[in-house]
Predict the structure.
Amino acid sequence: MNSEQIIAYLTRISDSTRSKEMGKFGINTSNTLGISLMELCKLAKKIGKNHDLALTLWKKDIREVRMLAALIDIPHKVSEEQMDEWVEDFNSWDLCDHCCIHLFDKTDFARKKIDEWSKRQEEFVKRAAFALIAVIAVHDKNASNKSFEKYFALIIRESTDERQYVKKAVNWALRSIGKRNLVLNKKAIETAELLLKKKNKNSFWIATDAIKELTSQKIIVRLQKKS
């Protein structure tokens, strides 16, 4: 299938009712077709991996078409320039997280972009940095504790950001690191306790929510079984 055929197909199965429902979850519904991720994954499997097609689809500026692009792209062919271009197009938390989960975390530049994007001021660029931390914490089973410990400083630094989608991503990153193993769990809780001392309402929310999950019996038992 070429890009025109793909867009024609997606247009045929679009659902305006679903698009309206997405808005209730804080999703930017401009240029949205209202197609589920499951349907996009089925189509991506049918199309197969195709880097050039992914680049073409991304330029169409349609939410589901861009999500499909992330699904069919080939991580080792993704350039640093491409990542910087795509991240600037993020206009909603779901597109940001989708690209981080299905593509960006598997590229050669993921950790470099965490450092760079965490310093940027655009809401969804900064969110992408912390979404990547969270996703890599789950996906990279062989990464060392040390490779994650350095992110505690970024979490502390950006914990006072008042924007909802940044704040939630910082929290997500902290919780994900803390659920890798008992050592990082302890250090994540210690980081959360430092956030409480900042006496900032956003830092406080990030910390209390993280501590609640990371100290829960469910998480501690699971981590003990892994150790």
Q: What stands out?
A: Residues 1-73 form one domain. The chain is about 70% helix and 0% strand. The mean pLDDT is 96.
